[in-house]
Specification:
The complex is a heterodimer of chains A (272) and B (169).
Chain A: H1 2-30, H2 37-73, H3 78-114, E1 116-125, E2 134-137, E3 150-152, E4 157-164, E5 169-173, E6 180-185, E7 191-196, E8 201-204, E9 217-220, E10 232-240, E11 249-254, E12 263-270
Antiparallel strand pairs in A: 1-2, 1-12, 2-5, 3-4, 3-12, 4-5, 6-7, 6-9, 7-8, 8-11, 9-10, 10-11
Chain B: H1 2-21, H2 35-45, H3 48-66, H4 72-88, H5 96-120, H6 127-133, H7 135-164
Helix pairs in contact in B: 1-3, 2-3, 2-4, 2-7, 3-4, 4-5, 5-6, 5-7
C-alpha cells in the first residue's frame, strides 16, 4: 500500500516545497512595504559583521592600490621612492579627510537648504542581487526612519526607504526598475513620471508635443506623496519622438553617482 | 542540523561577499551570483526534502540582502534546486563539463524564473527585462567561475556521497 507513496514521495515533497515557496512569495507581494520579523532579525544580527566586512574590504582595496603604486615607483631612485611613499601616504590620508569634510559640509549646507528634518546616514552595504538596486544605511527605526521616507544627497534624489530594522534600513534607489516618482522638467514645467532602468532613468508619459531637450534638468514635482518638490532627479541625455504616438521617449542620467555613494540624508519629516 | 548550520554559515559569507566586495564590480550584469553554486552543490549532495528546504532558506537569506520582495529568490531557488536534482540523477556527476553546464543552466533557469515571477506576479516595472537582458552575461560568468570552483564541488559531492551511501532520493 505504501509502495506507490514511497515511489512518488520525493516528487510530492518537491511539489509541496515549491507550492509553499510560491505561497510565501505571493503573500509578501501584498505586504511589500512592511519588513518581516525574519528580515529584521537577519539584518540586525548580520549588520555588525557586514560593517566589519565592508571596512576590511576597503582596507584590502586601499592596500592593493598602494601596492600597485609601489611597483610603479620601483623605477625611481630608492631613497626618493621611500620618501615619496611616506609623503604620498600622508597626502592620501589628508585628501581623504578633506574629501570627507567637503562631502559632509555640502550635506550640512544642503540640509539647511531643503528646510526638512534630515538625518545623516552612511551607506554600509549594497545589493546581493545583480538586477535590483538597493543600499543599506546605518540608521533605522530607532532613529525615526520609516518605510517610504525619501533619501537624498546634495547632488539629488537617492531613493526611498523600503525596509526598516531597528538599527539599519534598506533604500530602493531611483534607478531600480520598481521605482517611480512624479517629476517636472525644470525649464518647461512638463510633467512626467520618472522610472528606473537599472543604471539609467526614463521619463514616462511626457507628451509628444512638449518641449524636452537634451541637457534639461528634471526635478521632483512633489505630487507623488514621497519626495518633496524641487529635488534634482537627473538630466535628459536622449530624446526621441516617433512619427506617431502620444508620448515621446526620454532617457535621463541620474544626478547622483551611485557608484560613489557614501553618505546620505534621510528626510524624516517636514519641519514646522 | 549540521548541514543547516554549514549552509547558513556559507550563505551568510556569500551574502557578505556579494554586498561588499563583488558589489564593486561594474557593470552589475557581470557580478557573479555565488548563491547558485551552493544550490547546485545541494542538488548533488542532498535529498529532495532536506536540500529543497535548505535551498529555500538560502533564497530567503538572499532576499534579506537583496531588498526584493521577501520570498522571490526562495521560490526561484527551490524550483532551480528541483530541476537541477532531476538532471543530476540522470548525469554522471564526475564529468567536469557536465558540471559546468549544470551551473550555467541553473543560472539561466534561476534568472528566467525571477523574470517570469516579476512579469506575471509583481509590479516591478521593467525589472523582468533587466533580468532577461543580463542572462547571457550571467551564464558566461557562472561557467567561468564554475571552472574555478569545480574541484571543491566535486570533492564535496564525493564526500557527501561517501557519507550517505549510494542512494539519495
Amino acid at each position: 500500500m505504501r509502495e506507490p507513496y514511497n515511489k512518488y514521495r520525493p516528487i510530492l515533497l518537491g511539489l509541496a516545497l515549491l507550492f509553499a515557496a510560491l505561497l510565501l512569495y505571493s503573500l509578501n507581494l501584498r505586504q511589500k512595504e512592511s519588513t518581516s520579523l525574519f528580515e529584521q532579525a537577519v539584518i540586525t544580527v548580520t549588520s555588525p559583521l557586514q560593517k566589519g566586512f565592508d571596512l576590511a574590504a576597503e582596507q584590502v582595496a586601499r592596500w592593493w592600490t598602494r601596492y600597485v603604486w609601489l611597483v610603479d615607483a620601483a623605477r625611481e631612485n630608492e631613497a626618493l621612492r621611500a620618501e615619496n611613499q611616506l609623503l604620498k601616504g600622508e597626502i592620501d590620508d589628508l585628501r581623504e579627510i578633506r574629501l570627507a569634510n567637503e562631502r559632509l559640509r555640502k550635506l550640512l549646507e544642503f540640509k539647511d537648504e531643503v528646510a526638512l528634518s534630515a538625518l545623516p546616514a552612511r551607506v554600509i552595504g549594497f545589493d546581493a542581487s545583480t538586477w535590483s538596486r538597493t543600499v543599506v544605511l546605518d540608521k533605522g527605526g530607532r532613529s525615526g526612519v520609516k518605510e517610504g521616507t525619501p533619501v537624498v544627497t546634495n547632488a539629488g534624489v537617492v531613493g526611498r526607504v523600503i525596509k526598516v530594522a531597528p538599527g539599519q534600513s534598506r533604500v530602493l534607489l531611483i534607478t531600480d526598475a520598481a521605482s517611480a516618482a512624479a517629476v517636472l522638467v525644470q525649464r518647461t514645467r512638463t510633467r512626467a513620471v520618472c522610472r528606473g532602468r537599472g543604471d539609467t532613468l526614463i521619463l514616462d508619459f511626457a507628451l509628444r508635443q512638449e518641449d524636452v531637450q537634451v541637457g534639461d534638468q528634471v526635478v521632483t514635482s512633489g505630487t507623488g506623496g514621497i519626495f518633496p518638490k524641487g529635488l534634482l532627479m537627473g538630466a535628459v541625455v536622449k530624446v526621441a519622438r516617433g512619427d506617431y504616438g502620444l508620448f515621446q521617449s526620454v532617457e535621463m542620467a541620474p544626478a547622483v553617482d551611485f557608484s560613489r555613494l557614501e553618505e546620505v540624508l534621510i528626510l524624516t519629516e517636514e519641519s514646522q | 542540523m549540521k548541514s543547516l548550520v554549514w549552509v547558513l554559515g556559507i550563505g551568510i559569507l556569500i551574502a557578505f561577499l556579494q554586498t561588499t566586495i563583488l558589489s564593486r564590480i561594474n557593470p552589475p550584469s557581470i557580478r557573479p551570483d555565488l548563491f547558485i553554486f551552493l544550490v547546485v552543490y545541494l542538488s548533488m549532495t542532498q535529498n529532495t526534502s532536506r536540500g529543497g528546504s535548505l535551498a529555500w532558506l538560502l533564497g530567503l537569506l538572499k532576499d534579506c540582502f537583496a531588498g526584493v520582495t521577501f520570498g522571490l529568490h526562495g521560490f526561484a531557488f527551490v524550483a532551480t534546486f528541483l530541476l537541477a536534482r532531476l538532471v543530476v540523477r540522470q548525469l554522471n556527476p564526475e564529468s567536469s563539463l557536465l558540471l559546468v553546464l549544470l551551473v550555467s543552466c541553473a543560472t539561466a533557469v534561476e534568472n528566467g524564473l525571477i523574470a517570469l515571477s516579476l512579469l506575471m506576479l509583481a509590479d516591478a516595472g521593467d525589472g523582468w527585462r533587466i533580468v532577461l537582458q543580463q542572462i547571457p552575461a550571467q551564464v558566461v560568468v557562472g561557467a567561468l567561475l564554475s571552472f574555478l570552483f569545480l574541484p571543491f564541488i566535486r570533492w564535496g559531492g564525493r564526500r557527501a556521497r561517501a557519507a550517505s551511501g549510494p542512494h539519495l532520493s
